[in-house]
């Protein structure tokens, strides 16, 4: 399909799919076929969650790798804390249940009526994906590395009779321990890196920070400091959970830091699967980001676009990416100039303003390109004056 034909099909009001119908949670006027497609598009998300759960459960039951160690390594001499500052049950409540409850309550109270359940669904699904991804990655690394915890020797209770003046600095393996290696306390003794509490806390609470940041439009360039303070509260809570692992002498400092990075990464990846970016550039200039992943053939000029912080309406696997329009420019013989994203949006806007719907749109994009040849300043002035994006 030529670039001009594509512009017509993209901007024409006669497109078969209606974006307004897709922007809400399965409204009554959506056909049963569309409903099934929308619901089926999330099948693999739930399948991936089940896969992560199976992998985590399997790995957790396997003995980890046992690194060798020395009895003179003072970093392994710390006491074993009988009671953790943040036990596992509290970690799940703080990092998963509480964020999920906040997402559901916020969605039901503050979202538009037609989007309440959809926002709650996508928000909780992203949270679950972030959590499942973090614990699975963490479990794999724990078993693969097998690093002793700071309280390892207190768990191990080594047989010091095997140590002689000639081998004080020798490396030992787990056979020197007098505690059963199959016990839970010894299986966990070799799982210091990375910190599971840290990765889990940052996966859930950093995701909540991203989610709240989207809902409050924290990067709207208006300088609302209170928004930043609210958004950073969950991240601060994650930091405190991670710090408790050093306080309890369960992990080395690097274990906690690396675990936090894992959680932050899965939180960001999960959030971006369902929501537009938080950056001010996307908010102000990028119409496609404001509208989310448009269904194929949907009008980019819809008046009911997805706002920043709102979940994408539907998956669009296999549809053209936003950058395809620019990439085809040289192939279509438009002079070899490679437009950037902002210019291409303005280029499309000129086509919209020049009367594409009225049958005059073929000349308008060409005129816009000709205007650029006359000089970037004149091109910018012509496009920005007509584009609704700027």
UniProtKB/TrEMBL annotation:
Polar residues biased stretches: 1-17
Domain Phosphatidic acid phosphatase type 2/haloperoxidase: 122-271
An example Gene Ontology molecular-function term: phosphatidate phosphatase activity
Gene Ontology biological-process annotations: phospholipid dephosphorylation; phospholipid metabolic process
Record key words, sorted: Membrane, Transmembrane, Transmembrane helix
Spans annotated as Disordered: 1-23
UniProt name for this protein: Phosphatidic acid phosphatase type 2/haloperoxidase domain-containing protein
Source taxonomy: Eukaryota, Fungi, Dikarya, Ascomycota, Taphrinomycotina
């Amino acid at each position: 399909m030529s670039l001009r034909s594509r512009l017509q099909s993209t901007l024409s009001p006669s497109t078969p799919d209606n974006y307004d119908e897709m922007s809400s949670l399965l409204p009554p006027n959506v056909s049963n076929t569309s409903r099934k497609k929308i619901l089926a598009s999330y099948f693999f998300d739930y399948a991936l969650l089940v896969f992560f759960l199976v992998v985590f459960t399997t790995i957790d039951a396997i003995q980890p790798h046992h690194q060798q160690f020395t009895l003179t390594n003072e970093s392994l001499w710390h006491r074993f804390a009988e009671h953790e500052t943040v036990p596992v049950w509290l970690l799940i409540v703080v990092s998963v249940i509480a964020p999920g409850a906040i997402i559901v309550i916020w969605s039901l109270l503050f979202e538009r009526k037609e989007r309440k359940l959809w926002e709650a669904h996508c928000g909780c699904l992203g949270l679950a994906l972030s959590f499942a991804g973090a614990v699975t990655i963490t479990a794999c690394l724990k078993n693969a590395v097998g690093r002793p915890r700071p309280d390892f020797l207190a768990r191990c209770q080594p047989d010091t009779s095997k140590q002689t003046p000639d081998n004080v600095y020798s490396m030992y393996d787990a056979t020197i321990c007098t505690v059963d290696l199959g016990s839970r306390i010894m299986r966990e003794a070799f799982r210091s890196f990375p910190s599971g509490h840290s990765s889990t806390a940052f996966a859930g609470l950093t995701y909540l920070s991203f989610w709240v940041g989207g809902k409050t439009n924290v990067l709207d360039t208006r300088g609302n400091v209170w928004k930043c303070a609210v958004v950073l509260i969950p991240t601060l809570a994650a930091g405190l959970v991670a710090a408790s692992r050093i306080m309890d002498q369960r992990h080395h400092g690097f274990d906690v830091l690396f675990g936090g990075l894992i959680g932050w990464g899965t939180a960001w990846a999960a959030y971006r699967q369902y929501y537009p970016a938080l950056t001010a550039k996307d908010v102000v200039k990028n119409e496609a980001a404001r509208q989310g992943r448009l269904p194929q053939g949907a009008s980019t000029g819809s008046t009911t676009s997805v706002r920043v912080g709102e979940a994408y309406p539907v998956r669009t696997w296999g549809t053209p990416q936003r950058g395809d329009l620019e990439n085809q420019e040289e192939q279509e013989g438009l002079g070899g100039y490679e437009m950037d994203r902002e210019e291409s949006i303005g280029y499309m806007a000129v086509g919209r303003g020049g009367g594409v719907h009225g049958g005059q749109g073929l000349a308008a994009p060409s005129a816009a390109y000709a205007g650029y040849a006359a000089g970037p300043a004149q091109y910018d002035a012509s496009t920005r004056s007509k584009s609704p994006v700027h």
